[in-house]
Amino acid sequence: MDALYTAVATATHGREGRAVSSDGRIDLPLASPVELGGDGQGSNPEQLFAAGYAACFGSALGVVGRQAKVDVSDAAVTAEVGIGKEGEGFGLKVTLRVELPDTVDEETGRKLVETAHQVCPYSNATRGNIEVTLVVE
């Protein structure tokens, strides 16, 4: 694959540090959530992954919607990223909640969401590695 764009970010001190993008648009403190024993006073990798996945999936949905001539411009995607013990390490699971406009019928909406799941780079990266559940609302 030839990359059309490459994002660059650096994190220091793991979950208790700072994340900064090469262009400076992201510059934020990191902290483990309270549920994982941290103070919760910063963003965490799961939140950043959720935000990226939700945005990317929304874009993929827009692409497949335009191809199908279905207006999904008012759709909203919420990504829930869970972390937990998996074997000796940790694993992730994702639920993508897609809220479609009322003008999109249930069957069409489901097909668009499933097609977006085949197109989305995050979905392609996680397929076979992370459990992803699609919920169409």
Features:
137 residues, three-stranded antiparallel beta sheet, globular, alpha+beta, three-stranded mixed beta sheet
Would you write up a description of this structure?
This protein has 137 residues and is α+β, with helices and mostly antiparallel strands. 31% of the residues lie in helices and 28% in strands. The chain is built from three helices and six strands. It has helices at residues 45-67, 106-119, 121-126; strands at 9-12, 18-21, 27-29, 76-86, 89-99, 131-136. The chain has a three-stranded antiparallel beta sheet with strand order 1-2-3, with no helix packed on it. Helix 1 (45-67) packs across helix 2 (106-119). It starts with 8 loop residues before the first strand and ends with a strand. The relative contact order is 0.13. The model has no long low-confidence stretch (mean pLDDT 96).
CA-to-CA gap between the ends? 34 Å
**What is the chains' assembly state?**
single chain
Q: Helices and strands, in N-to-C order?
A: EEEHEEHHE
What gross morphology would you assign?
A: globular
Helix tally?
3
Biggest beta-sheet profile: 3 strands, antiparallel
Low-confidence stretches: none
Strand content: 25-35%
- Annotation, overall tally of beta strands: 6
Topology readout:
Blueprint lengths: L8 E4 L5 E4 L5 E3 L15 H23 L8 E11 L2 E11 L6 H14 L1 H6 L4 E6 L1
Parallel strand pairs: 5-6
Antiparallel strand pairs: 1-2, 2-3, 4-5
